[in-house]
Amino acid sequence: MILYVLKKNKNSKSAAFGRYFAYPVIEETITLDGLAGHMSSHNTPYSKGAIKGMLTDMVSCIKELLLEGKNVKIADLAIFSLGIKNSKGGALSEELFTVTKNIKGVKLRARATGELITKSLNLEATLKKASATTKSNGTTNSTNGGGGTTNGGEGSTNDSNSGGGTTGNGSTENQGGGNNGGSTANGGDEA
């Protein structure tokens, strides 16, 4: 279940000024240790420690390979690559280009593949509007409705206020809001 909140576009220069857009509510960030614990609970003979060790080594190796100029593809997850953050304006000519003046840094890019491409996620995701109230421990109290799925199915939760509905036509167009999914401009097409 993906909870979302509606936010009004307050950018007066935007063509979508004053319109509302959905943004996901992130309730928790799972650490590598948490992921290892979750994975070990899925009927595997491997302990949390063994899984965490392999994941830690995987992260280290991915970084090493990326810094060698290679892309790393993990099937049904993402293709990881590095991008260059260029300084604004660029160089007037090749002769005037210098790394120190014209490159601000390097960034990690991830493009979804396989089961995580947008088309697949649109078929599986279930969305529900989150409440604006917050519990005393800082977690979101999701008590009001708007449920539904991206593929037009029913909202099915134990919450008595959920309702049916859809999120639209499955479009990944980003109108007036920021890029919250970390995907690349191609919408996560499989490579």
Compact description:
This protein has 4 helices and 6 strands. With 191 residues, it is α+β, with helices and mostly antiparallel strands. Strand 3 and strand 4 form a beta hairpin.
Compute the separation of the termini in Å.
28 Å
- Strand residue percentage: 15-25%
The beta-strand count equals: 6
Describe the largest sheet: 3 strands, mixed
Q: How would you state the average pLDDT, rounded?
A: 77
Could you state the order of secondary-structure elements as H and E?
EEHHEEHEHE
Task: Provide a count of the helices.
Answer: 4
Rg from Cα: 21 Å
- Report helical residue fraction: 10-25%
Detail the poorly predicted runs: 140-191
Structural class: alpha+beta
Task: Please give the order of strands in the largest beta sheet.
Answer: 2-1-6
Query: Shape, please?
Result: flat
